[in-house]
Amino acid sequence: MRNRIFTFIIWGLSGLLYIIGPRRIFKVCASKEMVMTCHWSVQAEAGIGILLLLSGILYLTAGSKEARLFLSIQTIGSYLIGILIPAWLIGGCKSKEMACQSLTFPSLYLISILGILYTAGNIVYIYFVRKAEGSQKQP
């Protein structure tokens, strides 16, 4: 049960950072005249944040090991899309000195990479460690 709670916290916090971070903590470029490309990247990243929150809630309530394993694999996909949106799919401002390129996107990359590393470790834990624990309990 501790694994479920901890995973829910990690995915939930990263989801909240995806939703709130680019708007409040590490803001994107402010432009009054026209909407910049980085604005649309942040909008798409908010969708990734919602998916991460939902994955955390589903993981907390998942009953079987297989469901938790598949949710973990799906969450790695969400983190990868979170990297691809600003890096390649939508992008941001062309200048590397702009706030989106120097602060917002690197922050989202860091959150995604840490999330991928944690979730990969979680998959190893679910698949190998829990399997070994189950085989030791049965005589």
From TrEMBL:
Keywords: Membrane, Transmembrane, Transmembrane helix. The keyword Transmembrane applies. InterPro entries: DUF4418. The keyword Kinase does not apply. The chain crosses the membrane at residues 5-21, 41-62, 69-89, 109-129. This is DUF4418 domain-containing protein. It comes from Anaerocolumna jejuensis DSM 15929.
